[in-house]
Amino acid sequence: MTAPVAQYYRLADFDYALPDDLIAQEPAPERDSARLMIVNRGTGGVAHRVFSDIEEYLNAGDVLALNDTRVFPCRLSAVKPGGGRAEIFLLEERERNVWDALVKGCSRTGKRLIIAGGIEAEVLASQENGARVIRFHGVEDIRAILREIGSVPLPPYIRRTATEHDRMRYQTVYAATEGAVAAPTAGLHFSEELLRRLEGRSIEFVKITLHVGPGTFQPVRADRISDHRMPPERYAITPEAAAAINRAKSEGRRVIAVGTTSVRTIETAASEGTVVSGSGVSRLFIYPGYAFRIIDGLITNFHLPKSTLLMLVSAFAGREQTLAAYQLAVQERYRFYSYGDAMFIA
């Protein structure tokens, strides 16, 4: 749901200048050692802390909504039969050995790419969104060996090759349900020790699932942002999770989303102030003018200029306040994007 005034926002209204050297190329030494900017929506006040300090800003009874999606090693290197490199970025499995994928370097229908150990990928068809349908040959089930032959799908702005260390750090400690091609990065800051401390302070955790798709990296091309359409992403909320969120709202306790994906999942499933359990597809685009039904607080990273994620944060905190916080983050040399620092907005 969006208010009519929102249609007048332009893409340029969500731009900001960011020096390249502030784009984090590596994670913080320890998960909860990243910096944390606290933003008070009511007063406009800002504080600078370390992420492990977040427990000082949470109240007993708060509900933290965690997206438990798990990133799978979906990037495959390939060789063209005549020579030359290609890359396959798996998106979603249709049936055994048949996948939707992005193919770079060789995407013509009927062509085959050589992966490893006699495995080949055949391009079956093209799709309107630029993806391809591919079939794997020479393997019983490609999914069973992805951990051996696939690599971590680091975002394009991390300009290095993924390492074994990334297999651990580009994954939340509570990741459980495999299916994402990108991590819900706000959750990367939570260590197991921090989660235990929060639980000891009577903070309640609720696990929900939204499998992050490639649309998280796709630029908004529409000048008028109300013309943008979000690509579909699969989500699921259990009856227990929905009941916990609804109980918190009825008792006046805060529901705090860990990441924009948790926001979109919960708000997609919300109907007249109540979260409905089940699974489905979210196409919800949140930008200024949106009336939030459930979320009272947001833990998030610093996002790309002109991105749908920045627009969501602007809807929650206000565009002017969000851009002012980003300008301050640049001045204070916070680290940006997936492996960067965090904000807590409440």
Percent range of helical residues: 10-25%
Structural class: alpha/beta
Query: Strand percentage, roughly?
Result: 25-35%
Please identify the top-level CATH class of the largest domain: Alpha Beta
- Gap between N and C termini: 21 Å
Strand order of the largest sheet: 2-1-19-18-14-3-12-13-17
Low-pLDDT runs: 1-6
Number of domains: 2
**Count of alpha and pi helical runs:** 7
> Averaged pLDDT, please?
94
Strands, total number: 19
- Series of secondary-structure elements, N-terminal to C-terminal: EEEEEEEEEEHHEHEEHEHEEEEHHE
CATH T-level fold name of the largest domain:
QueA-like
Any idea what the CATH architecture of the largest domain is? 3-Layer(aba) Sandwich
Main sheet: strands, sense, barrel: 9 strands, mixed
What's the CATH superfamily of the largest domain, by name? QueA-like
